[in-house]
Design brief:
495 residues, alpha/beta, Rossmann fold, Helicase, Ruva Protein, domain 3, 4 domains, five-stranded parallel beta sheet, 13% strand, elongated, Sigma_54_int, DNA-binding, AAA_lid_NorR
């Protein structure tokens, strides 16, 4: 049995646990089981346990279900209201499925039926401590991996974290990156981030929008031309390929490139050499290709508008830029950053958005994505001058958007004191009148409704819902465990 010593590498000091057992003789037996591995404090009632919890911090609780002044489940309920991590192991001599289910639903780490051997007790406590440590590691990892800024891009949602990680991984490679996404999602910002993160950052970055250049001039824009190559070519001119030598060439809206030019681009990518329009001499160059399109590239291949061989040559590292409507609270992060920038440009005094405006922003689908949001914020700043952006300042079509109850609540509860663009709490304008005290619901119920709506919106995907809500998935699971108890208590109060 000596082989079951508890190892807690996170702390060289023995873990301090609270043992709550009404039988003093049984409590002494259990303490003897644990003495070599734990520092143990004893309590024989709920009152004793409450007093000791107020005086000390325990890393684990071992609690009997039946106590002289109540139930061990009451200790678990109270602890879970304030502390979601501390493991609680329950014990009972009257084991039943119902009690075990209730214990696990309330967040117990494990459930022991008396009598049990020392080895079983130590293994159970060891697993409970390991579970706690693992939860802490996961939470710390999630926090460390969450960034709200990256090389000019703003966003903390899970899809954007994935974009950041791909950029970091791909930046050091010469592999071609193919960026897809709706218009206005920030594909060019992604390309700029790739260049800035790469070893080519000190070399030129040249961007070319294939949709903005007439087809008959596009070849010359990419490869350049010699003097007299065509009417009006009065002098030789370097193209984007030559200007980007050693750096990065970004071809935006590459789906607009004509098929005959696609074949020349394919050869350039394969060989690294090109010939200017009207010239006879090949020029060798070293550069990194980054391409982007707002269309489905495979659909373009199937329709015959894009060469399949070029697609596979370019589509080495794909990056999908998420639409703004799929980025949760990123809309507000971006809006605050833009409000600060544009207010400085226009010498305005704006410091933030009212909760009602934030709720409207969250309700709107943003078909034009970040570009549309930028236009809205610029419109507000140019045409108004105040400290807080209010609903009446919103331009069409946002002036007709009605925020859902969930989003209104989220905006008001998340920023009871609105947050300015600098991230500081500020005095808010008066909230809209008309809400009586009878319309106020318990906080846990409103929170439950918000979380369930998010899970439903994400088709039951809890981690995705957690990303949009900007909380840890483990937080959702813990709260779901608490709701059953709170619903039962509400029914008792209303009975």
């Amino acid at each position: 049995m000596g082989g079951y010593r508890v190892q807690d590498n996170s702390n060289s000091i023995r873990p301090h646990i609270l043992l709550v057992e009404d039988s003093k003789s049984t409590a002494l037996v259990y303490r003897s089981y644990l003495a070599a591995d734990f520092q143990v404090s004893l309590a024989h009632s709920l009152a004793d346990a409450s007093r000791l919890q107020a005086e000390s911090r325990f890393e684990l609780l071992l609690v009997d279900v039946r106590l002289p002044d109540g139930s061990g489940l009451d200790i678990l309920r109270e602890l879970r209201l304030e502390d979601s991590l501390t493991p609680v192991v329950l014990m009972t001599a009257h084991g039943s499925v119902d009690i075990a289910v209730d214990a696990m639903r309330l967040g117990a780490s494990d459930f022991l039926t008396k009598p049990f051997e020392r080895a079983r007790l130590l293994v159970t406590l060891q697993n409970a401590l390991k579970g706690r440590r693992l939860t802490q590691i996961v939470d710390e990892y999630e926090k460390s991996c969450t960034r709200d800024h990256f090389h000019g891009m703003v966003g903390a949602c899970l899809p954007m974290q994935s974009v950041y990680r791909i950029i970091e991984s791909a930046a050091g490679s010469r592999a071609t990156v193919f960026i897809s996404g709706e218009s206005g999602t920030g594909k060019e910002l992604c390309a700029e981030a790739l260049h800035a993160q790469s070893k080519r950052a000190a070399k030129p970055y040249v961007a070319l929008n294939c949709a903005a250049i007439p087809h008959d001039l596009l070849e010359s824009e990419i490869f350049g031309h010699v003097k007299g190559a065509f009417t009006g070519a009065n002098a030789a001119r370097e193209g984007a390929a030559a200007r980007a030598a050693g750096g990065t060439l970004f071809l935006d809206e590459i789906g607009e490139m004509p098929l005959d030019l696609q074949s020349k681009l394919l050869r350039f990518i394969q060989s690294g050499a090109f010939t200017p329009v009207g010239g006879n001499t090949e020029i060798q160059t070293d550069l990194r290709f980054v391409c982007a399109t707002n269309r489905d590239p495979l659909e373009e291949v199937r329709a015959g508008r894009f060469r399949e061989d070029l697609y596979y040559r370019l589509h080495v590292i794909p990056v999908q830029m998420p639409a703004l409507r799929d980025r949760g609270h990123d809309c507000l992060l971006i809006a605050r950053a833009m409000l600060k920038e544009y207010s400085a440009d226009e010498q305005r005094d704006f410091i933030g958005f009212t909760p009602d405006v934030e709720a409207i922003f969250q309700s709107y689908d943003w078909p034009g994505n970040v570009r549309e949001l930028s236009n809205v914020i610029r419109n507000i700043v140019v045409l108004n001058d105040a400290q807080w952006v209010e609903p009446q300042m919103l331009p069409t079509p946002l002036d007709g958007v009605v925020a859902s109850d969930m989003q209104v609540f989220a905006a008001h509860s998340d920023t009871a004191t609105p947050v300015s663009d600098s991230g500081e709490e500020q005095a808010a304008p008066e909230a809209t009148a008309g809400h009586s005290q009878h319309s106020i619901e318990p906080l846990w119920l409103s929170e439950k409704r918000i979380i369930e709506h998010a899970i439903s919106h994400c088709q039951g995907n809890v981690p995705r819902a957690a990303a949009f809500l900007e909380i840890s998935p483990s937080t959702i699971y813990r709260k779901k465990q608490q709701w059953g108890r709170q619903e039962a208590e509400s029914l008792e109060l209303n009975a």
